[in-house]
Structures are given as C-alpha cells and as structure tokens.
Specification:
globular; alpha/beta; TIM Barrel; eight-stranded parallel beta sheet; 8 strands; binds pyridoxal-5'-phosphate
Length: 241
C-alpha cells in the first residue's frame, strides 16, 4: 500500500466508526427518553497521532480528551481545534496543575480535595475559573483514584467553598465487570449520586454533565443516564503504546 492510500484508508475507517457511533449514541439517547443532542461524544485521543486526530476533527468531532498533561501540550498546536473543546481525563498530579490550567477547557479527572485546591490556586493566579468534573471511584478500587462514595457528599460541601473552580458534574470509570447486570448496577449507582447531589442545590456545584461510558459500554451508560461518553479505541482502533 502506498503512504497516501494508507492514510486515506485510515481516514475512511475513522469517519465510518464515527458515523456508526453517532448513530448508536442517538438510538440509545432516544431509548432513554432524551434527544440525540443531549449526549455528547468525546473522542479520546491518548496515544493517537495528531494526523489521525485531525481526521476525526475534520469529520465533525467537537470534543477531545487526553489523559496526560504533557501529551496534550505537545499535540495541541498540530490539531484543528477551531471550535473544539479539549478536556483532561487522566489523573492530574499537583505539580502539573499549573501547566494545564488555562489550557484545558475542563478537567474531568478531579479526584481529591487536594487537587481541587491546587487547580483553584493556579486558576486564581491566572485570573480565570476552571470547569471541573469530580471523579468518583465507584467500585472502591485500590488501584484507581477518585473520591470514595462514602465521603463524597462531605467533600462536595468542602469543595463548594473553594473559589477559582466550577464543578459541572461527575465522571466515573466503573470496574471491569463479569456481566452487564453488574456493570449496569455501577452506572445506576453513579447516576443516583449525580441526582442526589443535584437535588441538594449546593452553591457553586452544578450537576449538568454526567460523564460515563467508553468504547465497550457507552450504549449501556447512556441508557443509565450518561450525558457524555468518552470513546477512544472504537474510533481510532486499538491503542499502540
Ligand atoms: C482511555 C480512556 C477512555 C477511552 O477508552 P476506550 O475504551 O478506548 O474507549 C475513556 N475514559 C478514560 C478516563 C480513559 O482513560
């Protein structure tokens, strides 16, 4: 295959995948009593070459997610980002907060009060406010970061007092599950926490975005109330690290 036809076939694959996924998102949204536009698609671009990311952006993707600060900073100038939002979705270390604040449109992976405080500090320093989602460790997994369900409400009240950030919703990655029944239980638990916090009407805490669902489970996540799905491999193919 020539270089050119290789690139064109990659472009065709990515566009086809995006069309199929958009259709499935729309179907699941309607099935859950909402409109297709009520669920946003994020293209997760970690490890993906900017060339291929641009194929997706040229095909209408309006939101991308990266896991690492360094990777986002390195790639962003090569991307066709006009009118496109970029979110951080991977664990943020305190010492990297200063580099990402003002660059990412949202930090979805905010997993402790400590990192909230650091993002707030860096935001105030730059005279801006940063939109964040709070990440819940719904399966109480030791190898994962995120707020504990048991302490979450208390943490939210503490975070509500902090200036320089806006809490816009929740993000979560459920554990790998043996079957769909167990997986759906996790999605339902996340949704219930989201609705519960929303119902408390806490100042500076706006529950407008529920971010859950990835390549393997996004339709189920939408049926359980997801408003933003983060999809990588189903768009770009398997990741090569
Ligand atoms: C990598 C990643 C995704 C996308 O995973 P896929 O299974 O490739 O769709 C979504 N969310 C987070 C937080 C990720 O790290």
């Amino acid at each position: 295959m020539t270089e050119k036809s290789f690139l064109e076939s990659r472009r065709a694959d990515i566009c086809y995948n995006l069309d199929v996924i958009s259709e499935k998102i729309a179907e699941a949204a309607i099935k859950s009593g909402r409109r297709p536009e009520d669920v946003r698609l994020m293209a997760v671009t970690k490890t993906v070459d900017p060339l291929f990311i641009n194929f997706a952006l040229d095909h209408g993707v309006k939101l991308i997610g990266e896991n690492r600060v360094q990777e986002l900073l390195k790639k962003k100038d090569e991307l066709h980002l006009d009118g496109v939002e970029k979110h951080l979705i991977g664990h943020l270390q305190t010492n990297k907060a200063g580099q990402i604040v003002g660059v990412a449109d949202m930090i979805q992976s905010v997993d402790s009060v400590k990192i909230v405080k650091e993002i707030a500090k860096q935001s105030l320093k730059k005279g801006i406010e940063t939109d964040v989602l709070l990440e819940i460790n719904i399966g109480a997994e030791e190898n994962k970061t995120g707020f504990d369900v048991g302490e979450f409400t208390e943490s939210v009240y503490e975070i509500a007092e902090i200036g320089g950030i806006h809490v816009k919703g929740l993000m979560s990655v459920p554990p790998i599950c043996e079957n769909d029944t167990i997986l759906c239980k996790f999605f339902e638990n996340i949704y219930n926490i989201y609705v519960d916090i929303k119902g408390k009407k806490i100042d500076n805490i706006n529950m407008q975005i529920l971010s859950m669902g990835m390549s393997g489970d996004y339709e189920k996540a939408i049926l359980c109330g997801s408003e933003l799905v983060r999809i990588g491999s189903a768009i770009f193919g398997p990741r090569i690290y």
